[in-house]
Batch of 2 targets.
Target 1
Amino acid sequence: MKIHCMMCGRAVEMEEFKPDPYDDEDDIPQKKPVVFCQLCEAKIKNESDHAQKVPKPM
């Protein structure tokens, strides 16, 4: 199953998974998963690490 990255549009290969037979949420329609490629995921993580505030000393 090919899905595209939400940020850059690159094709990301996703593994098919078998649904859980004991899952009660079968009647809920499935949404497309939000997927980021490895490069965009690393970029988001790096930006969020730099956005963290440094705690003030007490």
Target 2
Amino acid sequence: MIELIDIFFNQYLRIFFVIVFVGLIIFSLYCSYHDKLKKFLRFKNNKKN
């Protein structure tokens, strides 16, 4: 019984840490490229007008 509980929580902890890790990577990339994206989108909108 304890082995089943251990396997169950081990899988959920892995999934949780993967989601947190991927979220941190995406947040870091968003923060580092935020200004570049703003300039790019502004340049793109000005070109249409």
